[in-house]
Design a protein that fits this description.
Elements: E1 5-7, E2 10-12, E3 25-27, E4 30-32, E5 45-47, E6 50-52, E7 65-67, E8 69-72, E9 91-94, E10 113-114, E11 133-134, E12 147-149, E13 167-169, H1 178-181
Parallel strand pairs: 1-3, 2-4, 3-5, 4-6, 5-7, 6-8, 8-9, 9-10, 10-11, 12-13
Length: 190
């Protein structure tokens, strides 16, 4: 079955949960103020696409391809990114709400998370090498078995994880973040 390609289109304020979207390869498309919440995007491909102020919460992602895809000011709660096609996954997140989502075992090397809410997000066994969690809220985020080589937490807030359960090398932290790294130890910090 040949897959159709949709290129260079802008979708504005479309509610895809009500109006189905053709399963296709979307290249260089912009989705502005669209609602995908609880839609099933299984098997879709998004290449060089941009999602702006859109709601993708609880979207089905089985086999979805995201290459050079940017998300800006999007609500993306409860998304299971580990269901995506893992080959060539590259995306950027700016001011997105990704609470209760999961990136379990994904290679997220150098993926930018800027000013995002990452509450209760599962980063277990991820490669987070070179990731900068710039001004992100990591309350309750699960970070265990992860590779944290040159990962930057200096401006992130509310992270708590055990350094001994992760691969840590040249990882950057701010002094204010140290209590979250020492929480599992019986120490007092003043």
């Amino acid at each position: 079955m040949e897959r159709s390609t949709i290129e260079d289109r802008e979708f504005l304020a479309v509610r895809f949960a009500e109006r189905s979207m053709p399963q296709a390869e979307y290249q260089n498309c912009v989705f502005n103020e669209c609602d995908f919440s609880q839609a099933d995007l299984s098997g879709f491909k998004f290449i060089d696409c941009e999602f702006i102020a859109s709601n993708l919460s609880m979207t089905g992602l089985q086999g979805v391809t995201f290459r050079d895809t940017h998300f800006r000011d999007c609500k993306m709660m409860g998304m299971l990114f580990e269901q995506c096609n893992p080959y060539g996954v590259t995306f950027q997140f700016l001011r997105c709400i990704l609470d209760h989502s999961s990136f379990f075992r994904l290679n997220l090397k150098r993926i930018p998370f800027v000013e995002c809410s990452l509450r209760e997000v599962d980063f277990s066994e991820c490669d987070l090498s070179g990731v900068n969690f710039q001004n992100c809220d990591l309350s309750g985020a699960q970070i265990e078995g992860a590779t944290l080589v040159e990962t930057d937490f200096r401006t992130a807030q509310n992270y708590t994880f055990d350094l001994s359960k992760n691969k840590v090398k040249k990882t950057k932290f701010a002094l204010l973040g140290l209590p979250g790294l020492l929480q599992g130890y019986d120490v007092e910090i003043e």
